[in-house]
């Protein structure tokens, strides 16, 4: 029997995973928290407070809590984020993780709740094609950094100029299930901007909540400005298009993005 679900006295579902060796683990849907892990000698390996309260509304003291989307008070949300104070659900969809080697597993999912979307707004949008590039950060005195993320997502103010970008950059909106592609020529750089909440409030002609439904991606020539001599010509162009829905489900192939295909 890989796992079973029991209800605690107060109705909190608890999933018990067992191994033929006798080792076991227990996970509560409350917080998605592992509250017990026993070895094959049935010895408890996790600490649980003797005063732990295994039900809402407070976080459970002990076991393996999930601190998300922030750790401690490093953010605007409650201590360690909301994930450990929510009821998770069993996820019936296939796990994106590699299959375990004959071990008991259970996939849990934390679905977005309206209250969390309000306090932790995410526009579910990513920009692909700027990964690994250098950029000037206009928020840090135009200092030069190298992008470390696989794709750019937004969880705060962004004001950057990415340098020598590929000719194609994609904006993928998972929520609206649409992808926009920016193709450009003659404009090597790309500016990316979202003012986020505080700056949005400070801009007189920008709605307080508008930052949740926009991002600004400009084709640009910033690092090496284009200077024309009299009667010299220069051409720059950008083209915006939508692409097929098959792009929604997966990522764009980064090699193809870099090749501008
Ligand atoms: O009391 P909690 O919110 O569960 O946090 C318990 C502890 O978690 C982490 O280890 C933090 O670094 C500590 O500062 C915090 O006291």
Automatic annotation (TrEMBL):
<dbReference type="GO" id="GO:0005737">
    <property type="term" value="C:cytoplasm"/>
</dbReference>
<dbReference type="Pfam" id="PF01263">
    <property type="entry name" value="Aldose_epim"/>
</dbReference>
<dbReference type="GO" id="GO:0005975">
    <property type="term" value="P:carbohydrate metabolic process"/>
</dbReference>
<dbReference type="GO" id="GO:0047938">
    <property type="term" value="F:glucose-6-phosphate 1-epimerase activity"/>
</dbReference>
<dbReference type="GO" id="GO:0030246">
    <property type="term" value="F:carbohydrate binding"/>
</dbReference>
<dbReference type="InterPro" id="IPR011013">
    <property type="entry name" value="Gal_mutarotase_sf_dom"/>
</dbReference>
<keyword id="KW-0413">Isomerase</keyword>
<feature type="binding site">
    <location>
        <position position="84"/>
    </location>
    <ligand>
        <name>substrate</name>
    </ligand>
</feature>
<dbReference type="InterPro" id="IPR008183">
    <property type="entry name" value="Aldose_1/G6P_1-epimerase"/>
</dbReference>
<feature type="binding site">
    <location>
        <position position="61"/>
    </location>
    <ligand>
        <name>substrate</name>
    </ligand>
</feature>
<dbReference type="InterPro" id="IPR025532">
    <property type="entry name" value="G6P_1-epimerase"/>
</dbReference>
<comment type="similarity">
    <text>Belongs to the glucose-6-phosphate 1-epimerase family.</text>
</comment>
<protein>
    <recommendedName>
        <fullName>glucose-6-phosphate 1-epimerase</fullName>
        <ecNumber>5.1.3.15</ecNumber>
    </recommendedName>
</protein>
<feature type="binding site">
    <location>
        <position position="79"/>
    </location>
    <ligand>
        <name>substrate</name>
    </ligand>
</feature>
<dbReference type="InterPro" id="IPR014718">
    <property type="entry name" value="GH-type_carb-bd"/>
</dbReference>
């Amino acid at each position: 029997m890989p796992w079973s679900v029991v209800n605690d006295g107060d109705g909190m579902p608890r999933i018990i995973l067992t191994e033929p060796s006798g080792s076991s683990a227990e996970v509560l849907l409350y917080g998605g928290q592992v509250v017990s892990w026993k070895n094959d000698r049935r010895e408890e390996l996790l600490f649980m407070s003797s005063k732990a309260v295994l039900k809402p509304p407070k976080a459970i003291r002990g076991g393996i809590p999930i601190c998300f989307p922030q750790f401690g008070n490093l953010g605007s949300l409650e201590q360690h984020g909301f994930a450990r104070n929510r009821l998770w659900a069993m996820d019936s969809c296939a796990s994106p993780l590699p299959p375990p080697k004959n071990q008991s597993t259970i996939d849990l999912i934390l679905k977005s709740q309206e209250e969390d979307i309000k306090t932790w707004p995410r526009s579910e949008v990513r920009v692909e094609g700027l990964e690994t590039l250098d950029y000037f950060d206009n928020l840090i005195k135009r200092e030069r950094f190298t992008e470390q993320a696989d794709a750019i997502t937004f969880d705060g103010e962004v004001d950057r100029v990415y340098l020598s970008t590929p000719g194609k950059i994609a904006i993928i909106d998972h929520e609206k299930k649409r992808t926009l592609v920016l193709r450009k020529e003659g404009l090597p750089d790309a500016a990316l901007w979202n003012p986020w909440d505080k700056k949005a409030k400070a801009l007189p002609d920008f709605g307080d909540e508008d930052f949740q439904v926009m991002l600004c991606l400009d084709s640009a020539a910033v690092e090496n400005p284009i200077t024309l001599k009299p009667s010299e010509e220069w051409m720059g162009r950008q083209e915006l298009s939508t692409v097929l829905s098959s792009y929604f489900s997966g990522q764009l192939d980064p090699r193809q993005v870099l090749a501008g295909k």
